[in-house]
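Repro:
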Amino acid sequence: MTAELTVGITDLLTFTIIHSVQKVTGFKIIRMSITNDTQELLVNSQQIRPTEPLEYRAIGRLWGRYIPSSDLIYQGQLITADGVMLETNLAKRASILVQQSQLDLSLEYLWTVYPRTPFKDSPTLLRVTLTNLRTPKEYTDSVKTELQLLADNFSVQGLVVYQDLEQGIVEVKIHRKPRRESEPAKDFQLRLLGFLPSNSIKKFWNFSVRRVGTSLVIQSGECIKLEPREQSSTSDTSTNTTEDTTLAY
């Protein structure tokens, strides 16, 4: 059974939502596709995808120039290709690359990032942690163009804990598995723009997301609703994936 619903967020965003339901190996899957009628958003063929069905994750790629602060090289700003300035810090791997690889920080690079959306009263709508970057041997214009096409796409997967059906706001809880047994879990919530079916709260969703300015806009999504006998399995889901996706800030 398939249903189609058209809803509006403001004059800026109008989405078409299509969702269907089917049974797959003990899970109930709700597939949803979203298109933006007022702004064409590129969706590349190399999207970052989860490696586990119930893997909590929030990771993406950004093209931009990193400017460290005058005091600390691992804190600063990332200036994206469209001129947006994002508060930024470097994870351990990226910090080593920046300090030891003699990078030319006047150039733009393709960065792998972890996104965060601070609380509503924060002046910052989006901040990122840079975890890795691509440094091709030949940095030609064609190579730069190929890398730029990979930018601004994010993979977000977690538990929907809040949605505003009028403003088109969705908040997703991301569970960060501690690296050591003695460490407590550090969960956080990521704020997305888009519309879901009204009964989506407390369900596990996989989203393809695109950065638009300082907002993370849902492009498509898949809802995985666990059968009652398997609900406990989400609590032990790992955040480790094959493309540097361990959530470590």
